[in-house]
Amino acid sequence: MARTTDPSVYAIAPGRPFLDLLAHGILQQQGGDPLTLSRVTVLLPTRRACRALAEAFLRQSDGTALLLPVIRPLGDVDEDELELRGKADERSDALPFGTLERSLLLARLVQASPLAGGDSANALRLARELGHLLDAAATEEVGLDRLPDLVPAELAGHWQQTLDFLKIVRETWPAIKAEQGRSDSAEHRQHATQRWIEHWQKTPPTGPVIAAGSTGTIPATARLLKLISRLPQGSIILPGLDRGLDEAAWAAVQDEPTHPQHALARLLDTLGVMRDDVVDWPHSLASAGKSDQGRAGLLTAALLPPAESHRWRDLRGGIAADALAGLQRIDAPGPREEALSIALAMRETLETPGRTAALITPDRMLARRVCLELARYGITVDDSAGMPLIQTAPAVFLRLLAAAVAEDFAAVPLLALLKHPFCRVGMARGDLLRWTRRVERKLLRRSRPAVGLVQLVSDLASKPDLLPPLARLAAIAETMQSEDGQTTTLKTLLQVQVIAAEALTVAPDQPTPLWQQDAGEALHALVVDLLDASDQFGAVTPAEWPRLLDALLEGQVVRPRRPSHSRLAIWGLLEARLQQADRIILGGLNEGTWPPQAKEDPWLSRPMRAALGLSSPEFRLGQTAHDFVQAASGGDVILTRAAKVDGTPTVPARWLLRLEALLDEKDVRWQGSLAPQYLAWAEQLDTPAQSLKFDPPKPAPPVTARPRSLPVTDIETWIRDPYAIYAKRVLGLRRLDPPDQPPDARLRGNVIHAVLEKFQQRHMATLPDDAAALNELFDLGRIEFGTWLEQPDIAALWWPRFERAMRWFLAYERERRSDGFRPALLETKGATELVAPGGAFTLEARADRIDRHDVDGRLAILDYKTGNPPTPKQVNSGLAPQLALEAAIAQAGGFEGLSPAGIAELVYIRLGGGAEPGEAKRIEGTSRTEIPPADDLAREALARLSGWVAWFDDETKPYLSRPRPQFVDYPGDYDHLARVAERAEGTGEGQ
Q1: What does the pLDDT look like over 155-196, one tens digit per residue?
Q2: Predicted confidence (pLDDT) per residue in 314-345, tens digit
Q3: Residue in 316, 181, 343, 274 with CA at minimum distance from that of residue 660
Q4: What is the pLDDT of residue 727?
Q5: CA distance 282 to 297
Q6: Any idea where the PD-(D/E)XK endonuclease-like domain is (predicted)?
Q7: Residues 37 and 169 both lie in one domain
Q8: What residues contact residue 983 under an 8 Å CB cut-off, 6+ apart?
């Protein structure tokens, strides 16, 4: 292709300080005259690059005061400047739609579509996707009017549904823009850029114009670059043009969108410039060093287009010996190790005065991890790509408030709101936390149906010291609550939310922290924009608000105003373009992260995009590949990746795999590039200099501090895990239930115990007929379950099991009474005293049920179970002594109203309600073990207990943790205190 003019196109090789060379060259061109320098216009790809170029001028001038050139980002056209110069015309666009305003307006259109599913948050997300399609079409100058012609109607019925939906962007949206005389932002920028082109064509600028660092991926920008290259004093400076590729490979690059040179190849074609006509930026810089030709040759060979990769065998011998000099690799086991290794590499850089380091990664989670790891050294580094607004403290508080209102202030969302650092409820923060802990323990940490804030206020009516803060919270919350299903406007919901949030975050003599610092200011700006644009949105129900709020916050980013560290930086891919540092660390080099996974268009298939004229999804991969090559070409580069993320093996970035394939994994240079020292340092950092050896806990409190009474339910625990009794009875520790504990087996057991107790009390002598008895049992069950039955899982699963269990129980009860047994006591407390070396020891019990036989007057001890009862062998061995000890108390006349008597039987009644609804398990002999008669079993259990009490009345005898672990097959409440897990892993006892 022959050029028709003489364009001025230069290139700066990868690995060289682009902006310093650019600034140095411009200063040389202008001869140091500050007035002349101010006439120069420099166009760069990003605003951050513009700020960095200004700093580069200061470096190159050694701090001398300068009138800097006009530095602006490409595409950021100043419309007012055009008008002041009298260059605006009738095509000048009115105010373009802001991204937020357009999304809300499009969402209102989407809400009318069945694709939105009647959900406002879903409608907003779909509207954003439509906005992306509009921006892509405007940026690539593609009309959407040809959408109906992409697929014949008879080939795809579902496409017709999508096509009907896309009428929003084909017909409705253009009509709205025409009616309001406005345009999309991308469309506005494209038109403004085109007007600048036309303006400069008619009136070329009198001063030098330099466009640097752009790959011209936007058609309007590429045309502007073409014009600049042909201006009398215009120049184009390309970043990292690869002139090492031969012609065959270069031809293949133009058809391979994932290649790092693909965008530059297209740009050269637009400019009408041959690659050989591009020359190096001629203005050298002594401090910049030379471009690393060996590394450039290695990357050129490794990243050959797939059609040319068969040449690797021939290219291996031509790789320069120093191609990997200054390149290091870290293959970390996981993200934590990767982040810590990167932090150590950055910290190492600070050991050399004046030396700088930067992490470049698209993985924002990795960036946050590195920031946290650097904080252990007191080093504060912000991620310049920003933090998602939705994750910041002010936004989280708004989300917690919305969720709490939507769930009527159930325990979990209420506690999350109260414990947020911003929450005050008109109190000092410390006072609020102390009040919250008291309310939490008294009201919220128990199993009960979810209740609202009004019920909580009622529960605290008798506790005036706890009521006022909750009453204030209820008054504030009342302003946010409305009738279910009632629709309102986005503006109303947002205003009410903000007013309530401010009221909740104000403390005495302290303003609200909601709008403070970078995150608060960003949230305030978003709220103001939302209030201005909220009229564009459709009706919303309060139940939708939490999800809609999340959708509104998504995609918003809080960026630091200025670098937090002068020598360390963390950049995203866009922020890193044209930037420089002495050490460059490329993090997150895994497929799907860097390079990212090609994002599929939710509306158009690949053939449709191609037919419409849109670029393929892989085009972005070529841009990220160019970013990789530019960064990896430096003199001190570290490449990092994690072998596993969230326990899942990862695939190395294709560029790493290509380097390994080209060099051969056995190549000593490739193996030598590994930098295990960082991983070793990371491991040593958290490894103590000396491992502390510890034995299992052996607390031996004085006898006076040891319990002198225990219920029979604790005796089994005392036998199997004495340490649990020490923690519970000596230290006084209790396990806290989770807030609003969901219904569990304990609740079901309590319900069954209460139902059977009340039923038996009414019918101690005789039973009613089956129909009346069952109705009575079911009525009692409904009363005891109460509002729990309103929950679908309770009604569908528990209630049928309860009915089956009650039917079985009634049949069993009739059979039992026909055998001569009648209830004597129900849910009755009893006790007996044992003589022990440390003084009297009281054994306490609460028997579920004790029956007396009509003929011989002997007693039967019964216990209701909803789970599996102990086996006869466990009872006989003393590991499960509950029933036997209750029998011993009954033998001694320890139950009030029951005289001493012999024991006829011990019976466990299991009421599961499953396939086998119930079972009466009588403790009796088996084929392997003969169980003694119940009287003897009771006496033996009491004798064992007496010996056990005497053993622990010796203060040299410790309360051991699980001394017989084979008999403890369940987690205990105090296992963490006894370091059970550590001992099981072999890191404690005997280490």
Answers
A1: 566 777 788 888 899 999 999 999 988 999 888 888 888 888
A2: 887 778 878 888 999 999 999 999 999 999 99
A3: 316
A4: 95
A5: 21
A6: 712-941
A7: no
A8: 696, 989
Do 330 and 267 fall into the same domain?
A: no
Q: Which helix (H) or strand (E) segment is 228 a member of? A: helix 219-230
Q: What is the distance between the alpha carbons of residues 456 and 410, in angstroms, rounded to a whole number?
A: 10
CA dihedral 674, 678, 682, 687 (to 10 degrees): 90
Helices marked H in 351-428: 364-375, 393-406, 411-418
Q: Is 201 left (phi over 0), alpha (psi -120 to 50) or beta?
A: alpha
Phi, psi of 499 (to 5 degrees): -60, -45
Indicate the pLDDT class of residue 291, thresholds 50, 70 and 90: very low
- What contacts 24+ positions apart, CB below 8 Å, involve 45-51? 45/73, 45/74, 45/213, 45/214, 45/577, 45/578, 46/73, 46/574, 46/575, 46/577, 46/578, 47/73, 47/76, 48/384, 48/574, 48/575, 48/579, 49/19, 49/73, 49/213, 49/577, 49/578, 49/579
How many domains in the chain? 6
Evaluate whether residue 679 is within a structural domain: yes
Contact criterion met (CB below 8 Å) for 834 and 942: yes
Co-location of 718 and 817 in the same domain: no
User: Could you report how far apart the first and last alpha carbons of the chain are, in Å?
Assistant: 76
Nearest to 650 by CA among 597, 574, 586: 597
Residues 6+ apart with CB under 8 A from 364: 383, 385, 387, 388, 572
Q: What is the pTM of this model?
A: 0.85
d(CA 168, CA 176): 10
Same domain, 907 and 945: yes
Query: In this model, does residue 141 exceed pLDDT 70?
Result: yes
Look at residue 294 and tell me if it is in a domain.
no
- Show which of 289, 305, 333 is a domain's final residue: 289
Domain annotation covers residue 300: no
Of the candidates 388, 671, 698, the residue with the CA atom closest to the CA atom of residue 523: 388
Q: What are phi and psi of 846, to 5 degrees?
A: -135, 100
Residues 714, 753, single domain; the answer is: no
Q: Which domain holds residue 200?
A: 9-89+188-289
Contacts of 178 (CB under 8 A, 6+ apart): none
What CATH number should be reported for the domain holding residue 766? 3.90.320
Predicted local distance difference test score (pLDDT) of residue 570: 95
Cα(638)–Cα(624) distance, integer angstroms: 17
| Same domain? 396 vs 522 | yes
Q: For tokens 């017989």, what's the residue? A: 964
Residue 463, by phi and psi: left (phi above 0), alpha (psi -120 to 50) or beta? beta
Contact in structure between 281 and 11 (CB atoms under 8 Å): yes
**In this structure, what is the dihedral angle of CA atoms 185, 190, 196, 202, given to the nearest 10 degrees?**
-140
**What residue has token string 């190492």?**
348
Please give the structure tokens belonging to residue 417.
Answer: 């709101």
Sorted by sequence, the CB contacts under 8 Å of residue 174 that are 6+ apart come out as none
Query: Is 310 among the domain residues?
Result: no
Assess whether 111 and 129 both reside in one domain: yes
Q: DSSP letters of 670-736?
A: HHHTB-HHHHHHHHHHTS-SSPPP-PPP-----GGGS-SEEEHHHHHHHHH-HHHHIIIIIS---PP
Q: Do 139 and 40 share a structural domain?
A: no
Q: How many CB atoms lie within 10 A of CB 767?
A: 16
Q: Which residues pair with 666 in a beta bridge?
A: none
Q: What is the CATH number of the domain that holds 50?
A: 3.40.50.300
- Under 8 Å between Cβ of 207 and 231: no
Q: Look at residue 988 in the predicted model and tell me its pLDDT.
A: 44
Averaged confidence pLDDT in the chain: 87
Residue that terminates a domain, selected from 510, 533, 558: 558
Burial of 847 (0-12, 13-18, 19+ CB in 10 A): buried
Average pLDDT of span 525-530: 94
